[in-house]
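Notes from the 1:1 (GR / supervisor)

We went over the backlog. Supervisor wanted to see one worked example end to end before approving the batch request, so GR pasted a single chain during the call. The sequence is below; no edits were made to it. Supervisor asked that the structure be written out right there so they could see what the output format looks like.
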Amino acid sequence: MAGGGAPAPKQDELQPHPAKDQLPNISYCITSPPPWPEAILLGFQHYLVMLGTTVLIPTALVPQMGGGNDEKAKVIQTLLFVAGLNTLAQTVFGTRLPAVIGGSYTFVAPTISIILAGRYNGIVDPHERFKRTMRGIQGALIVASTLQIIFGFSGLWRNVTRFLSPLSAVPLVALAGFGLFELAFPGVAKCIEIGLPALIALLIFSQYIPHLLHSERRVFDRFAVLFSVAIVWIYAHLLTVGGAYKHASPQTQLSCRTDRSGLINAAPWLLKKHLASKDGSLRWNSINKCIVVFAWLSVLPPIIFN
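Structure output shown during the call:
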């Protein structure tokens, strides 16, 4: 070819869009992060957003495993610690998107099937049952994670994604989000005098105050969760110390009072024990592994696009 230039690409070859350093109407991009003080506040706000869904998983599963507040606090600590490690890894080596990698609700159903397995029904001691059930769940999740690593690093799904449109992930992600309504809104209804003001405060700070102030610095809408959580928590604490729930039912007190969760007192702030067996091994039950592996296979499409 004259001039020694590179050959022109064929018409049928897909060419990637050129990368942009800054997208329009977006304050911060991957190559233009916010200042450190604002980044810390935004990170803490993102942590508060995912805290509810993270706590919801142990709250629903640990009591069925025979665990109490101590075991629930340990599971929450483990989920938050691993979520931090995964988030740090994906921001350094992964997509670098501002997303917290939290617990997946995909594995809740297979985990419940493992919890309700008949081999754990004969254990009388609740603490012993919790430990044995946790070992079985750990072994199953490790096997499922190993398969996910193999599929990811082998590049097998690279050939599949060529025939899939990003729009195909929209229904899957939407259905996963809609599934949380079944858990979230009943939780709000358990203490409507606190849940409803929280929703109203979030709407006011994120949608109405920015339009009323017309400020160039987007403070209220950017930190709407921080303002809403702080105000509603103070409001709930005032109701608690003021005796508003003194004669309420135990379920109402558990849902509305700020001193009834028992997690702060039960949490071991320096976790030294682990949930493995005495010899450090895990329970590798074949049925558990199959259950979690099939659950993982059923959600491969949304994993691809995340």
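Supervisor's comment: The CA atoms of residues 230 and 246 lie 23 Å apart.
Batch request approved.
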